[in-house]
TrEMBL record:
One of its GO terms (molecular function) is oxidoreductase activity. Residues 139-276 form the GFO/IDH/MocA-like oxidoreductase domain. This is Myo-inositol 2-dehydrogenase. It comes from the Bacteria. Residues 4-130 form the Gfo/Idh/MocA-like oxidoreductase N-terminal domain. The keyword Thylakoid does not apply. Keywords: Oxidoreductase. It holds the Pfam family GFO_IDH_MocA_C3. It comes from Halomonas huangheensis.
Length: 374
C-alpha cells in the first residue's frame, strides 16, 4: 500500500490529538494511502524522543528545521503555537512538502496571504485544522441547508465560548500575548465559528462590525515569581456580520465564559425551518420544519447515525455518538484523500486566510467604530 510519511511538530493538546487521529484513521476509514508517523519535532531532543515513544513515532528531533528538510517526510503537520505557523509552513513549502497546519493559520491576514502565495505557487496541498466542521451532525446541518429543506436562509447566529481563562488568577501564557497568539478569544475560538459560518451557509462574510474587550488586563507571570504582566489581546469579542448572499448574522466568542467548556453553537434560520446545534451535545442536531398543523410543530432532535455523513465508519449503531478526536480522524481521512487522490481540500490555506481577514476586519472595526469590509 502507498504510504504518506508525516512529520509532526509540537506535541501539546493538538499534537496529541493529531497523533491519535493519524493512528486511528486507517482503522476507521479505507484510505488510499497509509499515514506513517515517521518523525516528530519538539523544543529539544530529550522531549522529542520521549514524545516519539509515547505517541508512536519512528524518529524524533529537537530541531523542527531538520524535520522540514528530512527527505522521508511527505507532509509537515504543524501543531505549534500560532506565531510559529508562518515560518514553519514557508520552510515546509520551500522544501516541497504538503502542509497540514493548526488554526488560526497566521497571526495576521498579511502573514496568511504570504503563506497562501507560497503554497499556490509551489503547488503543494494544504489543510487547516478547523475540525468542528467535520462532525457528522454539522455535516448533516450543511446538507439540510444546501438541500433547501429549511428554505432560504435569513439569519446565522454563532458562538464559540469557553472558560479556560475565566479565573483571573490563571497565569499568562502564549494565548494572552500578541506576538505569540495574535488575537485572543477571537483568533483562538472565534476563528472556528467564523469558518463554520461560511461552511454552513455557503456564503462569504463580506462586512463586519466588531467589539472586543479584555476583561482581565493583568495576570500572574508564569512560575512563582509573584509578578504580574499585561494581557495583550481580547478575552471576548462579538461581531455583526453581512454575507455576500444577503444573509445577516452575528457571532460571539469568549475564553472567560464561566461554565462553558465547549460552547461552539449555532442557530441557522431559514424561511421554512431552522437548525440549532451545540457542540457540548455534539451528536445531536435540532431541526424545525414548518410542516404539519401549527399545533404539532416543534424542534425535533436528530441523533446522528449511520445514515449521516461519516458516522457509519465509526459505528453501525445510531445514537452512540462521536467525540472530539473523531473529528480529527475525519480530517486525516480528508487530508490523505486530498493529497493522494487530488480531491480539493477544505479549508486550505486560501479559505483559512479568509478567516484571518475576518479577524483583522473585526479588530479594525472595533478600533474605528464602523462597519468594515473583509
Ligand atoms: P500547546 O501549548 O498545548 O502545545 C504546543 C506544543 O508546541 C508544545 O508541545 C510545545 O513544546 C511545542 N513547541 C513550541 N515551540 C516549538 C518549536 N520551536 N519546535 C517544536 N515544538 C514546539 O498548544 P496547543 O493547544 O496544542 O496549540 C497548538 C496549535 O493548535 C495552536 O495553533 C492552536 O490554536 C491550535 N489548536 C487547535 C485546536 C482545534 O480544535 N483545532 C484546539 C487547540 C489548539
Amino acid at each position: 500500500m502507498k504510504t504518506l510519511n508525516i512529520g509532526l511538530i509540537g506535541t501539546g493538546f493538538m499534537g496529541k490529538a493529531h497523533a491519535i487521529a493519524l493512528k486511528a484513521a486507517p482503522t476507521v476509514f479505507s484510505l488510499p494511502a497509509f499515514p506513517v508517523c515517521e518523525l516528530l519535532a519538539e523544543v529539544n531532543d530529550e522531549l522529542a524522543a520521549h514524545k516519539a515513544t509515547e505517541l508512536g513515532f519512528t524518529r524524533s528531533t529537537g530541531d523542527w528545521r531538520a524535520l522540514v528538510e528530512d527527505p522521508k517526510v511527505d507532509v509537515v503537520d504543524i501543531c505549534a503555537p500560532n506565531f510559529l505557523h508562518k515560518e514553519m509552513a514557508l520552510a515546509a513549502i520551500a522544501a516541497g512538502k504538503h502542509v497540514y497546519a493548526e488554526k488560526p493559520l497566521a497571526l495576521s491576514a498579511a502573514d496568511a496571504a504570504a503563506m497562501v502565495e507560497a503554497a499556490e505557487s509551489s503547488g503543494v496541498k494544504t489543510l487547516v485544522g478547523f475540525n468542528y466542521i467535520r462532525n457528522s451532525a454539522t455535516q448533516l446541518a450543511r446538507e439540510i441547508i444546501a438541500s433547501g429543506e429549511i428554505g432560504e436562509l435569513v439569519h446565522f447566529r454563532g458562538r464559540h465560548n469557553e472558560d479556560y481563562l475565566s479565573d483571573p488568577t490563571s497565569p499568562l501564557d502564549w494565548h494572552t500575548c500578541r506576538a505569540t497568539a495574535g488575537a485572543g478569544a477571537l483568533g483562538d475560538l472565534g476563528s472556528h465559528i467564523l469558518n463554520m459560518a461560511e461552511f454552513l451557509t455557503g456564503q462569504h462574510i463580506v462586512e463586519v462590525f466588531g467589539q472586543l474587550q479584555t476583561v482581565t488586563a493583568r495576570r500572574p507571570l508564569p512560575g512563582n515569581s509573584g509578578g504580574f504582566g499585561e494581557v495583550e489581546n481580547d478575552d471576548h469579542a462579538q461581531a455583526l456580520l453581512r454575507f455576500d448572499g444577503g444573509l445577516i448574522g452575528n457571532i460571539e466568542t469568549s475564553r472567560i465564559a464561566t461554565g462553558r467548556k465547549m460552547g461552539l453553537a449555532y442557530t441557522v434560520t431559514g424561511t421554512r425551518g431552522s437548525l440549532v446545534f451545540d457542540q457540548e451535545r455534539m451528536s445531536e442536531l435540532q431541526l424545525y420544519t414548518s410542516e404539519g398543523p401549527e399545533g404539532r410543530r416543534g424542534f425535533r432532535t436528530l441523533l446522528v447515525g449511520p445514515e449521516h455523513p461519516d458516522y457509519a465508519a465509526f459505528s453501525p449503531a445510531a445514537g452512540h455518538g462521536l467525540g472530539y478526536n473523531d473529528q480529527k480522524i475525519i480530517e486525516i481521512r480528508d487530508l490523505v484523500e486530498g493529497i493522494v487522490s487530488g480531491k480539493p481540500l477544505y479549508p486550505d490555506f486560501h479559505a483559512a486566510w479568509r478567516v484571518n481577514r475576518m479577524i483583522d476586519a473585526i479588530e479594525a472595526s472595533h478600533v474605528e467604530g464602523h462597519w468594515t469590509r473583509v
